[in-house]
User: Fold ATP-binding protein from Ornithinimicrobium pekingense.
Amino acid sequence: MSTGTDVLVRARDVHKSFGDLEVLKGISMDVHRGEVIVILGPSGSGKSTFLRCINNLETMHAGSIAVDGTYIGYEVKGGDLFRARSKTAARQRGQVGMVFQQFNLFPHMTVMENLVEAPVVVHGVPRQEAEERARRLLGIVGLADRETSYPSQLSGGQQQRVAIARALAIEPKLLLFDEPTSALDPELVGEVLATMQDLAERGHTMIVVTHEISFAKAAADRVYFMDDGVVVESGPPDQVLENPQQERTREFLRRFL
Ligand code: ADP
Ligand code: MG
Assistant:
């Protein structure tokens, strides 16, 4: 399973500091194509920072991350790694779609305009093709009838499903979710998790930061528990969630009983 081409994301010993505060203290992770990874951990443990490093929104201080064999934030020259120029970084970021806690839709644009913006403007996809792709994606997230709506006319759950469709619109190799249901009213959480589960079953490679243990049990191939900038333990969900080996993991999971 773990031959080179199966590995979509290879993170090695990733370190990141903000000033004197070391937030990531050597994170390593391999994500295989088609895998769903759930990252659990208390607030402030570095989960968002790690996702942002994968998406090149933050620059790591040491270690490396490769997505589909291409180094993020770095490039290889003569066997050595150098920080990539910003254009290279921007191009690499196009391989990764990200969904945030706050849906971050463009409020002055319709649903359709939100979905075609990046493919047309950033990736040069012809508008008609981008619109066809957007309609297909709106069907997948269950919002085929809302393409002319503005975000303010949608519920939070619908807005987040549009944000998921927008992340998919660039046809990314990898989807990152950073607490996608944390800002939603409880009754709207289920529809977003169901959409994510559907994407998992369609074979998308996903890294999901969430506190939804039920989603981790149902959808994750592997669960990582992070605390204080390190991976405390990782493994299949039944192992990490039902039979955690580390006291820190047990203590965290007790909150959800
Ligand atoms: P999590 O997502 O697990 O809650 P974060 O990655 O958001 O954790 O944050 C980890 C730590 O890094 C926290 O202590 C947070 O305050 C700090 N941090 C995050 N982003 C910044 C930043 N841009 N500047 C300074 N400190 C930051
Ligand atoms: Mg976070």
Remarks:
- Residues 186-201 form the longest helix (16 residues).
- The pocket of magnesium ion (ligand 2) is lined by residues 47-48, 178-179 (CB under 6 Å).
- The CA atoms of residues 4 and 69 lie 9 Å apart.
- The first strand starts at residue 7 and ends at 18.
